[in-house]
Amino acid sequence: EDQVTQSPEALRLQEGESSSLNCSYTVSGLRGLFWYRQDPGKGPEFLFTLYSAGEEKEKERLKATLTKKESFLHITAPKPEDSATYLCAVQAGTGNQFYFGTGTSLTVIP
Amino acid sequence: DADVTQTPRNRITKTGKRIMLECSQTKGHDRMYWYRQDPGLGLRLIYYSFDVKDINKGEISDGYSVSRQAQAKFSLSLESAIPNQTALYFCATSDTAGPDIQYFGAGTRLSVL
C-alpha cells in the first residue's frame, strides 16, 4: 500500500534554532515529491518539487533533499514567520495520483 | 482575486441534505482535484479531472459525486450528507505542462449535524 509518513507531528523551535522535518514514503513508481506550506485557514502553498535521489532545492531558509526512501526539509535559522504546517506529497502510480502525509506543525518562538 | 476560488467558505448542514461545493479557477489549468482534510489523516483525494470529459475516482470517492461544467469549474456534491463527511474540503488545479504543481483554494469548512 502506498504510504507517506511525516515526522515529527509537531516541532517547537527557538528563533535561530535549525532543524529538519522528515517525509518517508513507500510508493510504486514515484514521479515526484512535493513540499507544501499550509497556514491556518488557508490552502497549501507549493514550496518545492524533487524528482530523483540526490536532488536538492533551496528557497530562503528552507532546503529540501531527496533519497530513495525519504525527503528532508531543512530549516536554517528559522524565524517566527516560518511557523506553519509543512506537508509532503508524492505523485506515483499509473494514475499519477498524489498521496499526502499528515504534516508537521512547526512553531518558531521569538 | 484568488486564482482558485471555492464557495462557500463555510457551511453547516443537516444529515441527509444534498449539498454542493463549487470551485472555479482563472489559471487556465486543465487538471482539477477535490480533497478533504481531516485532523490526523491529512489530505485525501476524492475525485480528479484531467479535462472536461475526464473524471476519475480518488482514494475516497464513496458518498461523493463531481461535475466538470467547464475547464474552469469543478463541483463536488454530497448527495445525502452524513456526519463523518464533516471536514475541510480543498479544490486544487494543476497544469498539464511542466511539473505537476497543485494550486489550492482557501478551502470550504463543512459541518454535517
Polypeptide structure, described:
Chain A is an all-beta fold and 110 residues long. Chain A has strands spanning 3-7, 10-14, 19-26, 30-38, 45-50, 56-59, 62-66, 70-75, 84-92, 97-100, 104-109. In chain A, strands 2, 4, 5, 9, 10 and 11 form a 6-stranded mixed β-sheet that branches. Chain A has a 5-stranded antiparallel β-sheet with strand order 1-3-8-7-6, with no helix packed on it. Chain B is mainly beta and 113 residues long. Chains A and B meet through strand 4, strand 5, strand 9 and strand 10 of A and strand 5 and strand 10 of B.
Count the DSSP helices of chain A: 0
Strand percentage of chain B: over 45%
Provide the structure class of chain B: mainly beta
**Gyration radius from CA atoms of chain A, angstroms:** 13 Å
Give me the oligomer status. heterodimer
Terminal Cα span of chain B: 32 Å
Mean pLDDT of chain A: 93
C-alpha Rg of chain B (nearest Å): 13 Å
Task: Provide mean pLDDT of chain B, rounded.
Answer: 93
SSE diagram, text form:
The complex is a heterodimer of chains A (110) and B (113).
Chain A: E1 3-7, E2 10-14, E3 19-26, E4 30-38, E5 45-50, E6 56-59, E7 62-66, E8 70-75, E9 84-92, E10 97-100, E11 104-109
Parallel strand pairs in A: 2-11
Antiparallel strand pairs in A: 1-3, 3-8, 4-5, 4-9, 6-7, 7-8, 9-10, 9-11
Chain B: E1 4-7, E2 10-13, E3 19-25, E4 31-38, E5 42-51, E6 54-57, E7 65-70, E8 73-78, E9 87-94, E10 103-104, E11 108-112
Parallel strand pairs in B: 2-11
Antiparallel strand pairs in B: 1-3, 3-8, 4-5, 4-9, 5-6, 7-8, 9-10, 9-11
Features:
heterodimer, A: 110 residues, mainly beta, five-stranded antiparallel β-sheet, 61% strand, globular, B: 113 residues, seven-stranded mixed β-sheet, four-stranded antiparallel β-sheet
Q: What can be said about this structure in brief?
A:
The complex is a heterodimer of chains A (110) and B (113). Chain A is an all-beta fold and 110 residues long. Chain A has strands at residues 3-7, 10-14, 19-26, 30-38, 45-50, 56-59, 62-66, 70-75, 84-92, 97-100, 104-109.
